[in-house]
Amino acid sequence: MLNISIHNLGEVTVFRCAGRVSFGYADTLFNAVAKGRSTWIAVLDLAEVTQIDAAGIGVLMSLRKWAKASGAQLKLMNLTPRVERLLALTRLRSVFETCSVSEMLDLLCRAFEQSQFANLDAAIEGPHRGLNDGEPVFAQSA
User: Fold this and answer.
1) Total tally of structural domains belonging to the chain
2) pTM
């Protein structure tokens, strides 16, 4: 079985996979990522993947092709030793972009900053408008 948790972080969506990326379950991963098209960066967190087979490798390749065609980025994160060995064995390790811890922190910080600016813009444009020609009214404490 494959369980996927989806975390939207602005332009980044993290797909946290747990279980088997194998025949019978691999399409679940493709459908989850491809339907999350609002994202520009799709990160597959593979830390809890217990098994991957040829169908799983096939779906990773299909996702790579989908990302290129749609203008998105696909990154793999937290590769287990088993997944790392399989990618090396199939000579596909260099085909996939991996996300290091520092890169992931950078992505998360950018997503957080974007969400803060979006919340600030919504607050300024929100229901707290005054009657001064559409200019926002801010209350100041003394």
Assistant:
1) 1
2) 0.71
